[in-house]
Specification:
heterodimer, A: 489 residues, mainly alpha, two-stranded antiparallel ribbon, 19 helices, 75% helix, B: 103 residues, Helix Hairpins, 76% helix, elongated
Chain lengths: 489, 103
């Protein structure tokens, strides 16, 4: 250990090192040891092992923070471990693990079972690590791009499927443009502060007027790039297309982990160093939030493809989460974290059910594919009901808790118009979520498709997401305490 | 005698490059040209970073620019890979014909 790589640096970086190492090992083993496609599901073991090792490393970091308190900075302030970052690390770990578990049957059915899939999942999570833990612009930028480029590949993973190719291409073009804007904003922030560390940027931003044109330019370009990544309107156009064309479990992963990681960065930037300029960014974000809720909820009503429908639903959820940041009070930030947590579990669960509908040559993403599910797989049907009720925000499920804290924070800080707007759109949302419920329980089956074949991984994933969605709704106390701990710095 | 080139000149150049890139994205219909426009946007960022780094007499700006270049290369590599996969299935690089999903 030298002055450039101290023991503290190693302790903070270790989980990312492990994830990247296991990701690369997966690529190597796929190539050297498992040439037969039928054996490739064993590569899932690398993913699970990687997550276990990274989990232990995160656990040790958490114990360290609980004992010593505060946060632990490394690499001269480029990376930091605090409860806020750890909250997201656990979220990414759970999402990646569940996505991996539900993938192998879908990939086998679609004849695209390649080993690099599991490696890419791990590398995407490595990128997310730097997004949640980074406190320096270059680190954040490289982490964001590691995640984004991996997702371009994952979205286009069904190489023989024209829709998957097209989704990947659209996501890549629009994603790269948004990255360009984001990093342009970063370059201006570097220019006005003379440093790439968020702490120094905070001082430079605080010294300037909130309406300083250069600062507004940086805010607008970086904000546009980040709003794209969380798929908030008016930068949401890629989301329905990418969500529809991607393999179903990757759609779920994109809607949860990628969005949570981008929110981790958004909240760290806007509630942190850019906080003093709140006066100038608050109207921009409020407009984006209202527009997201409007576009997401109204466009979802007419969709006939379940993945597209959930894409618009995820756009509207991005709007709700933004409202928590706009409120800006501790309750609001707590609401953002709780909302992201419950959103991850219910959305991942819903996509998990959709993933299990895939049959030989059929993606299973039309709303009619859900028909008669109550007969074909009653367990799946009932869990899907829980997820839909939760996504609509009806008590006693987790979705209600998330919305409750967001609205509470808005009222607390006097944003009455925003609170009322958000509440009105909840009613619209109930309509389209219950179209899915209606297809499952009421509409008759068109053709006899037989009972669903369900893999072990799907059962495990469904149990975890379903139980957490219910528990967080009935007994939210531990989740609230976790979120509370994460925002107290 | 021409006036010396200052940091402000570079920033204006960068803003113009950004604008050229964005106009290219909005008006062109060939995917290859779209990818070139993205490269122009990222190079606008590089000009910005190096100009600021020079103005502040720091190396950070240049280091950041090198990272931006690396990421741009990775993005272009993945983008061309995806484009080849699409071309094999569809035989087109024209955005208006890539319309299976509602744009």
């Amino acid at each position: 250990m030298s002055q450039y790589y101290t023991a503290t640096d190693h302790f903070v970086l270790l989980p990312a090192l492990l994830l990247a190492l296991f990701g690369c090992a997966t690529l190597l083993f796929d190539f050297l040891v498992f040439p037969d496609p039928k054996q490739r599901r064993w590569l899932l073991i690398f993913l699970v092992l990687g997550e276990v090792f990274a989990g232990v490393a995160f656990w040790r970091q958490q114990q360290f923070l609980l004992e010593h308190g505060g946060s632990l900075a490394a690499f001269r302030g480029a990376l930091v471990i605090d409860h806020y970052a750890l909250f997201f690390h656990w979220l990414f770990l759970a999402a990646t693990l569940i996505t991996g578990l539900i993938s192998y049957r879908y990939l086998e059915v679609r004849d695209e079972h390649h080993g690099e899939y599991y490696g890419l999942l791990l590398i995407a999570q490595t990128g997310m690590f730097f997004l949640a833990s980074g406190t320096e612009l270059v680190t954040l930028f490289v982490g964001l791009e590691t995640m984004a480029v991996t997702f371009y590949i994952l979205v286009g993973f069904l190489r023989a499927d024209k829709r998957s190719n097209e989704a990947a291409l659209k996501y890549l073009i629009l994603g790269s443009v948004s990255t360009g804007f984001l990093v342009y904003g970063f370059s201006v922030l570097y220019g006005i502060s003379g440093s790439t560390r968020l702490g120094d940027i905070a001082a430079a931003v605080a010294a300037r007027d909130a309406w300083d044109p250069v600062l507004v330019l940086a805010l607008a370009t970086a904000g546009a790039g980040l709003l794209f990544k969380i798929s908030a309107a008016p930068f949401h156009m890629w989301a329905p297309d990418a969500y529809e064309g991607a393999p179903t479990m990757i759609t779920g992963y994109l809607a949860t982990a990628s969005k949570a990681a981008s929110f981790a960065l958004l909240v760290r930037l806007f509630a942190g160093p850019l906080g003093p300029a709140r006066e100038s960014w608050e109207p921009l974000l409020a407009a984006a939030a209202v527009l997201s809720m409007t576009v997401g909820n109204l466009a979802a009503v007419t969709q006939t493809n379940t993945k597209r429908l959930l894409a618009y639903s995820s756009i509207s959820h991005a709007g709700y989460i933004l409202l928590g940041l706009i409120a800006g009070s501790p309750t609001g930030l707590k609401g953002v974290l709780v909302y992201l947590l419950v959103y991850t579990f219910m959305t991942l669960g819903a996509f998990l059910v959709l993933t299990s509908l895939a049959r030989q040559g059929i993606a299973g993403d039309d709303i009619n594919d859900l028909r008669g599910m109550m007969k074909r797989a009653p367990g799946h049907a009932l869990w899907m009901l829980v997820f839909m009720v939760s996504l609509a925000g009806i008590p006693p499920t987790a979705g209600f808790i998330g919305k409750f804290y967001i609205f509470w924070a808005l009222i607390e800080t006097g944003h009455y118009v925003l609170a009322v707007t958000g509440a009105v759109y909840v009613v619209v949302a109930i309509y389209y979520y219950f179209r899915i419920v209606k297809a499952i329980f009421v509409e008759p089956e068109e053709a006899e498709a037989g009972p669903l074949t369900v893999s072990l991984g799907t059962r495990v994933g469904l149990a975890v997401t379903g139980v957490l969605t219910l528990v967080a709704g009935v007994y939210p106390e531990p989740f609230l305490r976790l979120a509370q701990m994460s925002i107290t710095r | 005698m021409l006036a010396p080139i200052t940091t402000a000149h570079y920033l204006v150049l960068s803003a113009i490059l950004l604008l050229v890139g964005v106009i290219g994205i909005l008006t062109r219909r060939n995917v290859i040209v779209l990818m070139m426009s993205i490269e122009i946007i990222l190079n606008a960022v590089n000009v910005n970073l190096i100009a600021f780094g020079r103005n502040l007499d720091q190396l950070e700006g240049q280091v950041f620019a090198i990272f931006v270049i690396c990421v741009a290369v990775a993005e272009a590599a993945v983008g061309l890979g995806i484009l080849i996969a699409l071309f094999r299935n569809r035989e087109t690089v024209h955005v208006d014909e890539i319309d299976l999903l509602k744009w």
